[in-house]
Amino acid sequence: xxxxxxxxxCNHVKVVVRVRPESQKEKDGNFSKVVHVVDQxxxxxxxKEEEVSFFHGKKLSHRDxxxxxxxxxxxxxxxxxxxxxxxxxxxxxTTKTVIDGFLNGYNCTVLAYGATGxxxxxxxxxxxxxxxxxYLTMMTLYNCMDQIKEEKICNVAVSxxxxxxxxxxxxxxxxGPLAVREDNQKGVVVQGLTLHQPKSAEEIxxxxxxxxxxxxxxxxxxxxxxxxxxAVFQIYLRQQDKTASINxxxxxxxxxxxxxxxSERASVTNAKxxxxxEGTNINRSLLALGNVINALANPKSKKQHIPYRNSKxxxxxxDSLGGNCRTIMIAAVSPSSMFYDDTYNTLKxxxxxxxxxxxxxxxxxxxxxxxxxxxxxxxxxKKEILMLKEKLKEYEEKQASIPENHNxxxxxxxxxxxxxxxxxxxxxxxxxxxxxxKEYLKVEMRLKENALKTYYQKQCHEQIRLMCSEERVEKATxxxxxxxxxxxxxxxxxxxxxxEEVEHFExxxxxxxxxxxxxxxxxxxxxxxxELCKELQCYRLNLEVKDLKAQTEHMLSLMSxxxxxxxxxxxxxxxxxxxxRKQYLTLKEAGLANNVTENEFGEVEQxxxxxxxxxxxxxxxxxxxxxxxxxxxxxxxxxxxxxxxPNTPC
Amino acid sequence: AGGGGGAxxxxxxxxxxxxxxxSAVESRxxxxxxxxxxxxxxxxLLQEVKQLLSAAEEGGxxxxxxxxxxxxEYELGVNHTDxxxxxxxxxxxxxxxxxxxxxxxxxDCVSLYIQAQNNLGILWSERDEIKTAQTYLESAEALYNQYxxxxxxxxxxxxxxxxxxxxxxxxxxRSKRFEKAYTHTLYYLAQVYQHLEMIEKAAQYCHTTLxxxxxxxxxxxxxxxxxAATLSQYYLSKQCFMESRHCLAAxxxxxxxxxxxxxxxxxxxxxxxxxxxxxxxAEIARCWIKYCLNLLQSARKLLEDNIGELDPDRQxxxxxxxxxxxxEKEKGRKKAVLFGTSDICDSVLAMEExxxxxxxxxxxxxxxxxLVGQNYVQEAKEFFQVDGYVTDHIEIxxxxxxxxxxxxxxEEDYERRCKMHKRxxxxxxxxxxxxxxxYYLLISRQLQFELADTYYEMMDLKVxxxxxxxxxxxxxxxxxxxxxxxxxxxxxxxxxxxxxxDKVFPEKLEEDVLRPAMVAKxxxxxxxxxxxxxxxxxxxxxxxxxxxxxxxxxxxxxxxxDAVRAIETELELSKEMVGLLPTxxxxxxxxxxxxx
Lengths: 650, 596
Known about the structure:
The structure holds two protein chains of two kinds.
Chain A lengths: L1 H5 L7 E6 L4 H5 L6 E3 L4 E4 L27 E4 L2 E3 L5 H7 L2 H8 L3 E8 L5 H5 L8 H15 L4 E13 L2 E4 L9 E4 L3 E4 L10 H14 L14 E13 L8 E10 L27 H10 L15 H5 L8 E9 L6 H14 L2 H6 L9 H31 L3 H63 L2 H53 L7 H60 L5 H14 L8 H13 L3 H5 L13
Parallel strand pairs in A: 1-5, 1-13, 6-12, 6-13
Antiparallel strand pairs in A: 2-3, 3-4, 7-8, 7-11, 9-10, 11-12
Chain B lengths: L9 H15 L12 H20 L5 H21 L3 H15 L9 H17 L3 H21 L20 H25 L3 H17 L5 H17 L3 H17 L9 H37 L8 H26 L4 H12 L9 H21 L6 H21 L3 H20 L7 H28 L5 H23 L14 H20 L5 H24 L8 H25 L4
Helix pairs in contact in B: 1-2, 2-3, 3-4, 3-5, 4-5, 5-6, 5-7, 6-7, 7-8, 8-9, 9-10, 9-11, 10-11, 10-13, 11-14, 11-15, 14-15, 15-16, 16-17, 17-18, 18-19, 19-20, 20-21
């Protein structure tokens, strides 16, 4: 079975990066290393710390012509090969891993990517002394075929083509442009492409060599900058069981080794790239506009159609980049600052290639559209389950009349399980209920606090108005208005929250109601089983206790607020009274006291002595008005009580 | 002929012109080995001009001298950026803007200033400092707006500073060049916003760029149409159907202009071009299909109740609502996005008339949109034939099927609805049968699933029809059973596609197929439960099979708890069924053999 695990049908794109050693030219020139391989998976581009190069001990101070800030970017890949890695190492971690899949009938694709001179060709082709991935792949493949030749007949065929300027050419024979088409049985087909049957790995190498000479831009010619030619080498493997049976098992798989065009200005060619500039000669077409617009729409979504623009390569690889295909990408970079931009672009591109994985996955059967249908199914199924349950109950009852120990035990057990389940549900319901009540009371408390504070504000301001100069009053009014506005917004906010909580509570109540009804169905005679009944009661009381506790706590905090206010008032009063008396006496001594002052003072005295005074007709009104402004403190201190009924209403 | 006022000396003008030709025209012919040869020659010439100018400078009018120098700095700046010498390029461009700063709003400087800022924007974007690029480009945009508000006369083109007086450009030409520079500003901004992932803004600027290309006749019809069609797909994702339709209508209208291709020498080439044109046309048709499909599907989402049926209350509500807001809203939105000059605009509007951009609320309205979509399906299929374009062709057929599916939602009559699903089967089944899953695994799976679901839906409908009858007749029962069997068959085919070459079902499912596989298992379990038979033994067998599939789900999730997330609802129901079915089977068995 572990083998099956290995052979999972879908696999994501594996991205590896190979850093080649510095060339002589790079070593001699005023260049530094801009790629630092941290370990087998991580590399840092344009690292911050000044590394001292051990080989020639050059000072690095004059490295940065552009005085650029160090990018210091960390990249993580499936594998990173440092300068000193061997061809064999690269092979072991790349193509070798897919050869098994290839032999099992899966298509495989290996993409090599990188600027000219970054070591791409070396990695793929290599030299006779140090052969590259392609050669090693073929060697291994022939070895494998040799091992299974007893059981299977294997046929290998290869083709080699080039995509240049949106035209496809056969590299193994002289041909005009070829057309790509999809066939529903054979997949992607290049019409007129020649297939060759090499006998050995060596012969394949010869073919590669021959084909390369035919390429529009010779890949090994370093001087040829900006190669826009992609080379695609494909190996077809056909296996057939030797055992003569009627339904002969035939497996065909295709391995594509692709040398992607140089990346110097490759950002132009890939859809996501940064093509900003229009050459002065391009007047009418804003090339990149298409790219931008393409990027706006989401290509992963099947809900939109994005017209493809001229990509023969994409079409060619349609059956090789997804589904049952395994894909490896080898990005080749130079470590030298001489190729700073190329390296950066390549790494960015490779980094993005990691995402191809997700885009492939999202391609598989989408089930989004079935969601509504789903609810239907679920409803139906629930009905069915309910019906089954009912039938079972009937059955149980019948069984109950015929005492059968075994069945009864099962039933009892069943009910026990159900009860346990409902206990769990109740726990959840009440946990939720508790939470809501807690929040609700808290909001309530805040609201009350707010009301009190508003009231204090007003009172305080009233006092200032009575006492202070106009200027001060104005200032205070300003301040008060500000505070009141603040309190108001806060209140509105709280009010909204309170409404929400009330709503939540209602929801919870109807949930509880449903649960109760369901529990009633569980019992024998339309009553909730005793055990659950107790449980329910317990939860109710628990909630009530918690509620009351919270209320007490909130009340205390309100009290302390009130107390503060009271103390403040007391202090004012205690200061005022002696002052009043003193001034009154002074007035009297000076003989300035008249009837009004006498009366007023008398009134105050009466109030202080807590005597019931004569009520004047015009004063009554005033008092009543005052009361309208005043707060009903008891109302403020009262919290809404939790009503609990034996049966939660609907 | 010393500097002073008036035109620049003839020698200077000549050199300047040569430099520009070198850099714009000759450089295209440079060999790959020396890609910048002409650019370098142009640079040398510009340097010469600069020297000649500074020699002649004495006594000249300070401002005129400054502006001419700014033009040279600009050309040198662009030249350096073109040859990948960004730092030097930046210096020149900065010097240019410094020289112009005081006069930037005057007609002889504004165009140059905007172009210098455009190029600074490009330069910084090449350094990956998108934010800096953004500030330059936005300031260019602001300058354009300010100039147009305060002055608005066609300003001088930078090259005019090195042109003999009699060769000065006409106002029309000046305006054209100035607007082009500004179009470029917008176009670069679109890219900047896209890079900064300010998608909405990017879309808006793309739209404006397209609009301006049209206004100033600077476009290739095919390319423009394709861009507009693609932009329509962005609007779809934002549910802006009116904008989407406008883009598509404009795309179709502009595309029709491209019909007459200038005759090429080579016959092959003509053929190739015709082929390309046909493909582009089909691509636009496909964008239209998506438009119709999305409009219908969005309407469905608005109208459906929680079990996916049409909700008549919602329908009435939406109809009333639509009456109210229809007019004002649409007109208000429209002005901002309208493409084209009057004659194009008329054709675009006529094109728009053909299909609605408001949500269809009943079958009649839905059908009209469906028919338009279906027409485009035919058009797209004409080019994207199975033979040669397998994946494209199938995608179109899938869309066609989706069109039928969503139309069925609006249909009240169950029999007719069933027929629509049958149409889906009829188009999908033959395609599936002809497809090699080795190369088209993904599509093949999609088709299996869709076929299974369609059969399932048909069975549901037949059951619903049957429930209305007094008693199920044997014909209906047969029909229901055969539909269920077919649904099972396709779900099984899907599950089989997950097996490895040795036909073993994977022990652990890949993340991407986990949900589909589980849903398939779950549906099969249910379908076995739905099969109708009078034979109790058979029924028992079906129940047993059903139980096995439910058990698979439960066991799998127990083994791989990670999977629970993907199939919570199904798992819950499966657990219940696994709990209930055995007892029920027990009972059935007891009924079968009461004496055991």
